[in-house]
Amino acid sequence: MTSYAPDLMFEHMLTPLKGWVKSNQLDYSAPISSNVTFALPAGRVVHLNSSGEFETGVSGAQMGIFLTSGANSPAVANPGTTSGGSFVHQAVMPGSTNITAGLVATGGYELATTEFVDATYAPNATLQATVANTTESTGGKLTAGTRYTHAICGVVSRGKYTNEHGVSVLAFWPVYLPTTP
Amino acid sequence: MSTQSVAMRNEALFEQLRTPGMEKQAADTVSDYTRTKMREDGFLRKIMPPITITNSELTRRIDTDEPWRVVDKEPGSPASISVPFMTLPVDTYITGPRYGVSFCRILSPRFAKDVDQLRTWEMDIRQILSDNAIKDMLAEEDSKFIAACNAAMLGADTAVPYNGNVVQWETISGGITRETWAEALKIMPRGPSSLETQTILINSVTMKEVMKWGRDELGGDWAQDIAKQGWSATEFMGTTLIITIKRGLVPDNTIFMFSEPKFMGKHFMLEDTVMYIKNEHFMIEFFAYQTSGCTLGHTGGIARADFE
Fold it and tell me: What ipTM was predicted for this assembly?
Protein backbone atom coordinates (compact mmCIF):
# COMPACT_ATOMS: atom_id res chain seq x y z
CA MET A 1 0.00 0.00 0.00
CA THR A 2 1.41 3.36 -0.99
CA SER A 3 1.40 5.83 1.85
CA TYR A 4 2.47 9.39 2.29
CA ALA A 5 6.15 9.74 3.09
CA PRO A 6 7.28 12.88 4.90
CA ASP A 7 10.34 14.89 3.97
CA LEU A 8 13.06 16.27 6.19
CA MET A 9 14.52 19.65 5.39
CA PHE A 10 18.11 18.40 5.53
CA GLU A 11 17.74 15.28 3.35
CA HIS A 12 18.40 17.29 0.19
CA MET A 13 20.54 20.22 1.06
CA LEU A 14 23.55 22.34 0.20
CA THR A 15 25.57 23.36 3.23
CA PRO A 16 28.25 26.04 2.84
CA LEU A 17 31.10 24.96 5.10
CA LYS A 18 33.39 27.90 4.42
CA GLY A 19 33.29 31.22 2.64
CA TRP A 20 29.57 31.92 2.92
CA VAL A 21 27.33 34.10 5.09
CA LYS A 22 28.81 37.30 3.83
CA SER A 23 27.38 40.28 2.05
CA ASN A 24 29.41 39.75 -1.11
CA GLN A 25 28.60 36.10 -1.77
CA LEU A 26 28.47 35.20 -5.42
CA ASP A 27 24.98 33.83 -5.98
CA TYR A 28 22.67 33.77 -8.96
CA SER A 29 18.91 33.45 -9.26
CA ALA A 30 16.91 32.31 -12.28
CA PRO A 31 13.80 30.33 -13.12
CA ILE A 32 13.95 26.56 -13.50
CA SER A 33 13.49 25.50 -17.10
CA SER A 34 10.37 23.55 -18.00
CA ASN A 35 12.77 21.08 -19.64
CA VAL A 36 13.51 19.82 -16.13
CA THR A 37 10.71 17.39 -15.47
CA PHE A 38 11.40 16.56 -11.83
CA ALA A 39 11.47 18.69 -8.69
CA LEU A 40 15.09 19.80 -8.46
CA PRO A 41 16.25 19.52 -4.85
CA ALA A 42 18.69 21.85 -3.17
CA GLY A 43 22.28 20.77 -3.55
CA ARG A 44 22.04 19.80 -7.23
CA VAL A 45 24.23 21.43 -9.86
CA VAL A 46 22.64 23.47 -12.62
CA HIS A 47 23.78 25.66 -15.47
CA LEU A 48 22.12 28.48 -17.39
CA ASN A 49 20.57 27.56 -20.72
CA SER A 50 20.31 29.92 -23.66
CA SER A 51 17.07 31.34 -22.24
CA GLY A 52 18.65 32.19 -18.91
CA GLU A 53 16.95 29.33 -17.12
CA PHE A 54 18.42 26.60 -14.96
CA GLU A 55 18.93 23.13 -16.38
CA THR A 56 20.69 20.22 -14.75
CA GLY A 57 24.40 19.47 -14.65
CA VAL A 58 27.27 21.06 -16.56
CA SER A 59 28.97 20.25 -19.84
CA GLY A 60 31.36 21.99 -22.18
CA ALA A 61 32.02 25.52 -20.94
CA GLN A 62 28.94 25.83 -18.75
CA MET A 63 29.34 27.44 -15.34
CA GLY A 64 28.18 25.34 -12.45
CA ILE A 65 25.69 26.78 -9.98
CA PHE A 66 24.87 24.91 -6.78
CA LEU A 67 21.25 25.28 -5.74
CA THR A 68 20.60 26.59 -2.24
CA SER A 69 16.81 26.35 -2.64
CA GLY A 70 15.10 23.42 -4.27
CA ALA A 71 12.10 23.53 -6.56
CA ASN A 72 9.83 22.44 -3.69
CA SER A 73 10.94 25.23 -1.39
CA PRO A 74 7.91 27.32 -0.41
CA ALA A 75 9.87 30.45 -1.29
CA VAL A 76 10.38 29.11 -4.83
CA ALA A 77 7.00 27.68 -5.66
CA ASN A 78 3.58 27.30 -4.11
CA PRO A 79 1.72 25.05 -6.56
CA GLY A 80 -2.03 25.34 -6.32
CA THR A 81 -3.38 22.39 -8.31
CA THR A 82 -3.74 18.87 -6.94
CA SER A 83 -2.41 15.82 -8.76
CA GLY A 84 -6.01 15.16 -9.73
CA GLY A 85 -6.31 18.58 -11.31
CA SER A 86 -8.45 20.25 -8.66
CA PHE A 87 -7.90 23.92 -7.96
CA VAL A 88 -6.55 24.81 -4.54
CA HIS A 89 -5.17 28.30 -4.98
CA GLN A 90 -3.25 30.63 -7.29
CA ALA A 91 0.01 31.78 -5.74
CA VAL A 92 0.95 35.45 -6.17
CA MET A 93 4.20 35.66 -4.23
CA PRO A 94 6.13 33.53 -4.89
CA GLY A 95 4.59 33.35 -8.30
CA SER A 96 4.59 30.68 -10.94
CA THR A 97 7.97 31.54 -12.41
CA ASN A 98 9.78 29.14 -10.02
CA ILE A 99 12.77 31.37 -9.45
CA THR A 100 15.41 29.68 -7.38
CA ALA A 101 19.00 30.54 -6.57
CA GLY A 102 22.39 29.01 -6.07
CA LEU A 103 26.05 29.66 -5.36
CA VAL A 104 28.24 30.13 -8.42
CA ALA A 105 31.16 27.75 -8.83
CA THR A 106 33.75 30.51 -9.09
CA GLY A 107 32.83 31.84 -5.65
CA GLY A 108 35.26 31.08 -2.86
CA TYR A 109 33.46 28.39 -0.88
CA GLU A 110 33.77 24.95 0.55
CA LEU A 111 30.39 23.25 0.18
CA ALA A 112 28.79 20.02 1.31
CA THR A 113 25.97 18.51 -0.70
CA THR A 114 23.63 15.58 -0.23
CA GLU A 115 23.26 15.36 -4.02
CA PHE A 116 26.06 13.10 -5.22
CA VAL A 117 26.45 9.63 -6.63
CA ASP A 118 27.49 7.35 -3.80
CA ALA A 119 31.08 6.22 -4.31
CA THR A 120 34.50 6.64 -2.77
CA TYR A 121 35.95 10.12 -3.19
CA ALA A 122 39.56 10.85 -2.30
CA PRO A 123 40.70 14.41 -1.54
CA ASN A 124 41.51 16.37 -4.73
CA ALA A 125 39.35 14.12 -6.89
CA THR A 126 37.64 16.14 -9.61
CA LEU A 127 33.86 16.22 -9.88
CA GLN A 128 31.40 16.65 -12.71
CA ALA A 129 27.62 16.94 -12.66
CA THR A 130 25.38 14.92 -14.92
CA VAL A 131 23.24 16.69 -17.47
CA ALA A 132 19.92 14.82 -17.27
CA ASN A 133 16.82 17.03 -17.16
CA THR A 134 14.40 14.11 -17.08
CA THR A 135 16.24 11.72 -14.75
CA GLU A 136 15.79 12.51 -11.09
CA SER A 137 18.29 9.88 -9.95
CA THR A 138 21.21 11.53 -11.75
CA GLY A 139 20.29 14.96 -13.12
CA GLY A 140 22.59 17.55 -11.55
CA LYS A 141 24.20 15.10 -9.14
CA LEU A 142 27.94 15.25 -8.52
CA THR A 143 30.00 12.29 -9.64
CA ALA A 144 33.63 11.61 -10.48
CA GLY A 145 34.89 13.44 -13.53
CA THR A 146 38.03 13.46 -15.67
CA ARG A 147 39.82 16.74 -16.25
CA TYR A 148 39.51 18.09 -19.81
CA THR A 149 37.13 15.28 -20.74
CA HIS A 150 34.26 16.34 -18.51
CA ALA A 151 33.26 19.83 -17.39
CA ILE A 152 34.68 19.90 -13.88
CA CYS A 153 32.67 21.85 -11.30
CA GLY A 154 34.27 20.70 -8.05
CA VAL A 155 37.32 19.30 -6.28
CA VAL A 156 36.83 16.99 -3.30
CA SER A 157 37.97 18.57 -0.03
CA ARG A 158 37.27 16.73 3.18
CA GLY A 159 35.38 14.04 1.27
CA LYS A 160 32.28 12.02 2.07
CA TYR A 161 31.01 11.88 5.64
CA THR A 162 27.87 11.60 7.74
CA ASN A 163 26.86 15.00 9.06
CA GLU A 164 25.23 16.01 12.35
CA HIS A 165 21.78 15.19 10.92
CA GLY A 166 22.80 11.61 10.09
CA VAL A 167 22.83 12.33 6.38
CA SER A 168 25.68 11.44 4.01
CA VAL A 169 27.24 14.48 2.35
CA LEU A 170 30.16 15.14 0.00
CA ALA A 171 32.38 18.14 0.79
CA PHE A 172 34.16 19.90 -2.05
CA TRP A 173 35.47 23.20 -3.34
CA PRO A 174 33.52 24.41 -6.38
CA VAL A 175 35.69 25.22 -9.38
CA TYR A 176 35.30 26.07 -13.04
CA LEU A 177 37.23 23.89 -15.50
CA PRO A 178 35.54 23.44 -18.89
CA THR A 179 36.30 20.61 -21.27
CA THR A 180 39.01 20.97 -23.85
CA PRO A 181 37.49 22.93 -26.77
CA MET B 1 13.01 72.02 -0.79
CA SER B 2 15.83 74.37 -1.83
CA THR B 3 19.05 73.11 -3.34
CA GLN B 4 20.95 74.43 -0.32
CA SER B 5 18.75 72.61 2.19
CA VAL B 6 18.96 69.37 0.18
CA ALA B 7 22.73 69.64 0.15
CA MET B 8 22.67 70.30 3.88
CA ARG B 9 20.53 67.21 4.45
CA ASN B 10 22.96 65.12 2.42
CA GLU B 11 25.76 66.55 4.52
CA ALA B 12 23.86 65.79 7.73
CA LEU B 13 23.36 62.21 6.62
CA PHE B 14 27.01 62.05 5.63
CA GLU B 15 28.07 63.21 9.08
CA GLN B 16 25.79 60.70 10.77
CA LEU B 17 27.26 57.87 8.76
CA ARG B 18 30.78 59.00 9.50
CA THR B 19 30.14 59.18 13.27
CA PRO B 20 30.61 55.85 15.07
CA GLY B 21 27.37 54.64 16.61
CA MET B 22 25.20 56.88 14.44
CA GLU B 23 24.58 54.27 11.78
CA LYS B 24 21.25 53.24 13.31
CA GLN B 25 20.04 56.83 13.44
CA ALA B 26 20.95 57.27 9.80
CA ALA B 27 19.21 54.00 9.02
CA ASP B 28 16.13 55.17 10.96
CA THR B 29 16.09 58.39 8.98
CA VAL B 30 16.12 56.59 5.68
CA SER B 31 13.74 53.91 6.94
CA ASP B 32 11.18 56.47 8.21
CA TYR B 33 11.20 58.21 4.87
CA THR B 34 10.90 54.93 3.00
CA ARG B 35 7.72 53.97 4.87
CA THR B 36 5.85 57.18 4.29
CA LYS B 37 6.69 58.42 0.84
CA MET B 38 6.15 56.38 -2.32
CA ARG B 39 6.03 57.65 -5.88
CA GLU B 40 3.10 55.48 -6.85
CA ASP B 41 1.64 53.32 -4.17
CA GLY B 42 1.46 49.78 -5.38
CA PHE B 43 -2.06 48.76 -6.31
CA LEU B 44 -1.82 45.27 -4.80
CA ARG B 45 -1.71 46.84 -1.35
CA LYS B 46 -4.91 48.77 -2.12
CA ILE B 47 -6.77 45.82 -3.59
CA MET B 48 -5.55 43.31 -0.98
CA PRO B 49 -4.27 45.28 2.02
CA PRO B 50 -1.44 43.37 3.66
CA ILE B 51 -2.02 41.80 7.05
CA THR B 52 0.93 41.84 9.41
CA ILE B 53 1.66 38.33 10.57
CA THR B 54 3.85 37.25 13.44
CA ASN B 55 5.91 34.13 14.03
CA SER B 56 3.25 32.62 16.26
CA GLU B 57 0.74 32.77 13.41
CA LEU B 58 2.89 30.80 10.98
CA THR B 59 2.14 27.14 10.32
CA ARG B 60 5.12 24.90 11.05
CA ARG B 61 6.08 22.10 8.68
CA ILE B 62 8.45 19.22 9.08
CA ASP B 63 9.86 19.39 5.54
CA THR B 64 10.98 23.00 5.73
CA ASP B 65 11.65 25.77 8.20
CA GLU B 66 10.57 28.43 5.70
CA PRO B 67 7.56 30.51 6.71
CA TRP B 68 4.17 29.22 5.64
CA ARG B 69 0.56 29.85 6.65
CA VAL B 70 -2.47 27.62 6.10
CA VAL B 71 -5.73 29.46 5.52
CA ASP B 72 -9.18 27.93 5.76
CA LYS B 73 -11.61 28.43 2.93
CA GLU B 74 -15.39 28.44 3.11
CA PRO B 75 -16.63 24.88 2.43
CA GLY B 76 -19.31 24.03 -0.05
CA SER B 77 -22.44 22.29 1.16
CA PRO B 78 -25.13 20.21 -0.50
CA ALA B 79 -28.39 21.97 -1.17
CA SER B 80 -31.38 21.62 1.08
CA ILE B 81 -34.31 19.72 -0.42
CA SER B 82 -38.02 19.42 0.01
CA VAL B 83 -39.15 15.97 1.10
CA PRO B 84 -42.32 14.25 2.17
CA PHE B 85 -42.96 13.16 5.74
CA MET B 86 -41.18 10.14 7.25
CA THR B 87 -37.97 11.08 5.37
CA LEU B 88 -34.60 11.56 7.07
CA PRO B 89 -31.84 13.93 5.87
CA VAL B 90 -28.89 12.88 3.76
CA ASP B 91 -25.66 12.64 5.77
CA THR B 92 -22.66 14.68 4.76
CA TYR B 93 -19.35 14.31 6.58
CA ILE B 94 -17.85 17.65 7.50
CA THR B 95 -14.71 18.55 5.63
CA GLY B 96 -13.48 21.57 3.77
CA PRO B 97 -10.75 23.15 1.69
CA ARG B 98 -7.66 24.99 2.81
CA TYR B 99 -4.82 26.61 0.97
CA GLY B 100 -1.29 27.64 1.75
CA VAL B 101 0.40 31.03 1.66
CA SER B 102 4.15 30.84 1.29
CA PHE B 103 6.57 33.72 1.62
CA CYS B 104 9.48 35.08 -0.29
CA ARG B 105 11.73 38.10 -0.09
CA ILE B 106 11.64 41.08 -2.38
CA LEU B 107 15.01 42.82 -2.72
CA SER B 108 16.03 46.09 -4.24
CA PRO B 109 19.44 46.42 -5.85
CA ARG B 110 22.23 47.25 -3.44
CA PHE B 111 23.42 50.81 -3.97
CA ALA B 112 27.04 51.52 -3.18
CA LYS B 113 29.16 54.65 -3.25
CA ASP B 114 32.40 56.09 -2.05
CA VAL B 115 31.18 58.65 0.52
CA ASP B 116 33.62 61.28 -0.69
CA GLN B 117 31.84 61.22 -4.04
CA LEU B 118 28.54 61.95 -2.27
CA ARG B 119 29.83 65.35 -1.17
CA THR B 120 29.36 66.88 -4.59
CA TRP B 121 25.68 66.02 -5.09
CA GLU B 122 23.30 68.93 -4.67
CA MET B 123 20.12 66.99 -5.46
CA ASP B 124 18.74 64.71 -2.80
CA ILE B 125 20.18 61.55 -4.27
CA ARG B 126 19.32 59.62 -1.10
CA GLN B 127 15.64 60.36 -1.55
CA ILE B 128 15.69 59.63 -5.25
CA LEU B 129 17.41 56.26 -4.86
CA SER B 130 15.31 55.11 -1.95
CA ASP B 131 12.14 56.30 -3.72
CA ASN B 132 13.09 54.35 -6.81
CA ALA B 133 13.96 51.26 -4.76
CA ILE B 134 10.62 51.26 -2.98
CA LYS B 135 8.76 52.02 -6.21
CA ASP B 136 10.45 49.07 -7.87
CA MET B 137 9.64 46.76 -4.97
CA LEU B 138 5.98 47.74 -5.10
CA ALA B 139 6.05 47.30 -8.86
CA GLU B 140 7.37 43.77 -8.33
CA GLU B 141 4.42 43.07 -5.99
CA ASP B 142 2.02 44.45 -8.59
CA SER B 143 3.68 42.49 -11.38
CA LYS B 144 3.34 39.19 -9.51
CA PHE B 145 -0.26 40.00 -8.66
CA ILE B 146 -1.33 40.75 -12.23
CA ALA B 147 0.50 37.65 -13.49
CA ALA B 148 -1.39 35.53 -10.95
CA CYS B 149 -4.74 37.13 -11.86
CA ASN B 150 -4.18 36.51 -15.56
CA ALA B 151 -3.11 32.93 -14.86
CA ALA B 152 -6.19 32.30 -12.70
CA MET B 153 -8.52 33.56 -15.43
CA LEU B 154 -6.73 31.30 -17.95
CA GLY B 155 -7.01 33.72 -20.86
CA ALA B 156 -9.35 35.94 -22.83
CA ASP B 157 -12.82 34.51 -23.48
CA THR B 158 -11.89 31.17 -21.84
CA ALA B 159 -14.28 29.39 -19.51
CA VAL B 160 -12.71 28.71 -16.10
CA PRO B 161 -13.57 25.15 -15.04
CA TYR B 162 -12.94 25.72 -11.33
CA ASN B 163 -15.27 28.72 -11.26
CA GLY B 164 -18.47 27.32 -12.68
CA ASN B 165 -17.15 27.27 -16.25
CA VAL B 166 -17.81 30.99 -16.68
CA VAL B 167 -15.64 33.39 -18.63
CA GLN B 168 -13.92 35.80 -16.24
CA TRP B 169 -11.78 37.59 -18.85
CA GLU B 170 -14.01 38.91 -21.59
CA THR B 171 -13.44 40.85 -24.78
CA ILE B 172 -16.15 43.47 -25.20
CA SER B 173 -16.73 45.21 -28.51
CA GLY B 174 -17.96 48.75 -28.93
CA GLY B 175 -15.22 50.80 -27.34
CA ILE B 176 -15.45 52.21 -23.83
CA THR B 177 -18.94 53.55 -23.31
CA ARG B 178 -21.34 53.59 -20.42
CA GLU B 179 -23.05 50.61 -22.01
CA THR B 180 -19.89 48.52 -22.46
CA TRP B 181 -18.69 49.52 -18.97
CA ALA B 182 -21.92 48.14 -17.54
CA GLU B 183 -21.42 44.98 -19.61
CA ALA B 184 -18.03 44.57 -17.98
CA LEU B 185 -19.59 44.85 -14.55
CA LYS B 186 -21.79 41.87 -15.40
CA ILE B 187 -18.80 39.50 -15.67
CA MET B 188 -18.21 38.86 -11.99
CA PRO B 189 -21.79 38.41 -10.78
CA ARG B 190 -22.33 35.84 -13.55
CA GLY B 191 -20.03 33.48 -11.65
CA PRO B 192 -21.29 30.90 -9.16
CA SER B 193 -20.25 33.09 -6.21
CA SER B 194 -22.53 35.97 -7.28
CA LEU B 195 -19.91 38.51 -6.28
CA GLU B 196 -20.04 42.19 -7.17
CA THR B 197 -17.10 44.31 -8.24
CA GLN B 198 -15.77 46.46 -5.43
CA THR B 199 -12.59 47.79 -7.05
CA ILE B 200 -11.66 48.56 -10.64
CA LEU B 201 -8.04 48.85 -11.75
CA ILE B 202 -7.49 50.93 -14.88
CA ASN B 203 -4.50 52.69 -16.37
CA SER B 204 -4.24 56.44 -16.74
CA VAL B 205 -4.38 56.33 -20.55
CA THR B 206 -7.56 54.28 -20.64
CA MET B 207 -9.10 56.68 -18.14
CA LYS B 208 -8.86 59.39 -20.78
CA GLU B 209 -11.38 57.39 -22.85
CA VAL B 210 -13.87 57.63 -19.98
CA MET B 211 -13.21 61.37 -19.83
CA LYS B 212 -14.60 61.59 -23.36
CA TRP B 213 -18.08 60.60 -22.14
CA GLY B 214 -20.52 63.41 -22.71
CA ARG B 215 -23.36 64.70 -20.62
CA ASP B 216 -25.71 62.01 -21.93
CA GLU B 217 -23.45 59.23 -20.62
CA LEU B 218 -22.22 60.75 -17.37
CA GLY B 219 -25.37 62.64 -16.53
CA GLY B 220 -25.76 66.08 -14.95
CA ASP B 221 -22.97 68.62 -14.86
CA TRP B 222 -20.28 66.04 -14.18
CA ALA B 223 -19.27 66.02 -17.87
CA GLN B 224 -18.74 69.78 -17.64
CA ASP B 225 -16.72 69.41 -14.43
CA ILE B 226 -14.47 66.80 -16.04
CA ALA B 227 -13.94 69.01 -19.07
CA LYS B 228 -12.87 71.86 -16.80
CA GLN B 229 -11.00 70.09 -14.03
CA GLY B 230 -10.11 66.64 -15.31
CA TRP B 231 -10.99 63.35 -13.65
CA SER B 232 -10.79 63.34 -9.87
CA ALA B 233 -13.40 60.83 -8.74
CA THR B 234 -12.25 57.74 -6.91
CA GLU B 235 -15.73 56.22 -6.82
CA PHE B 236 -17.48 55.39 -10.06
CA MET B 237 -20.60 53.34 -10.77
CA GLY B 238 -20.58 51.99 -7.23
CA THR B 239 -16.96 50.87 -7.41
CA THR B 240 -13.64 52.23 -6.18
CA LEU B 241 -11.36 53.30 -9.01
CA ILE B 242 -7.62 52.74 -8.86
CA ILE B 243 -5.84 54.51 -11.68
CA THR B 244 -2.32 53.27 -12.30
CA ILE B 245 0.54 54.47 -14.46
CA LYS B 246 1.77 50.89 -14.92
CA ARG B 247 0.57 50.35 -18.45
CA GLY B 248 2.89 47.37 -18.83
CA LEU B 249 0.80 45.52 -16.27
CA VAL B 250 -2.65 46.96 -16.97
CA PRO B 251 -2.84 47.37 -20.75
CA ASP B 252 -4.69 50.15 -22.54
CA ASN B 253 -8.42 49.60 -22.96
CA THR B 254 -8.44 46.99 -20.20
CA ILE B 255 -9.95 47.03 -16.74
CA PHE B 256 -9.41 44.55 -13.93
CA MET B 257 -12.27 44.07 -11.50
CA PHE B 258 -11.95 42.77 -7.95
CA SER B 259 -14.38 41.84 -5.23
CA GLU B 260 -13.78 42.47 -1.54
CA PRO B 261 -10.42 41.04 -0.50
CA LYS B 262 -12.07 38.53 1.86
CA PHE B 263 -13.42 36.76 -1.21
CA MET B 264 -10.03 36.69 -2.91
CA GLY B 265 -7.29 35.40 -0.64
CA LYS B 266 -4.63 36.54 1.78
CA HIS B 267 -1.74 38.97 1.58
CA PHE B 268 0.55 38.61 4.57
CA MET B 269 3.42 40.87 5.55
CA LEU B 270 6.06 39.15 7.67
CA GLU B 271 8.49 42.04 7.48
CA ASP B 272 7.53 45.28 5.81
CA THR B 273 10.01 47.31 3.82
CA VAL B 274 13.30 47.80 5.59
CA MET B 275 16.20 49.89 4.35
CA TYR B 276 19.54 48.39 5.33
CA ILE B 277 22.52 50.75 5.42
CA LYS B 278 26.14 49.83 5.93
CA ASN B 279 29.04 52.22 6.27
CA GLU B 280 32.47 50.61 6.15
CA HIS B 281 35.49 52.92 6.06
CA PHE B 282 34.79 55.21 3.11
CA MET B 283 32.15 53.02 1.41
CA ILE B 284 28.42 53.29 1.94
CA GLU B 285 25.95 50.72 0.69
CA PHE B 286 22.21 50.33 1.16
CA PHE B 287 19.34 48.25 -0.13
CA ALA B 288 15.70 47.63 0.73
CA TYR B 289 14.00 44.34 1.43
CA GLN B 290 10.74 42.91 2.63
CA THR B 291 9.28 39.47 3.33
CA SER B 292 5.71 38.86 2.27
CA GLY B 293 3.41 36.24 0.85
CA CYS B 294 0.21 36.44 -1.14
CA THR B 295 -2.11 33.76 -2.47
CA LEU B 296 -5.47 33.90 -4.22
CA GLY B 297 -7.50 31.22 -2.49
CA HIS B 298 -10.64 31.97 -4.47
CA THR B 299 -10.50 33.37 -7.98
CA GLY B 300 -14.21 34.10 -8.42
CA GLY B 301 -13.56 37.62 -7.20
CA ILE B 302 -11.41 38.52 -10.20
CA ALA B 303 -12.55 39.63 -13.63
CA ARG B 304 -11.09 41.42 -16.61
CA ALA B 305 -12.58 43.22 -19.57
CA ASP B 306 -10.67 44.09 -22.73
CA PHE B 307 -12.56 46.75 -24.68
CA GLU B 308 -12.10 46.84 -28.44
Answer: 0.82
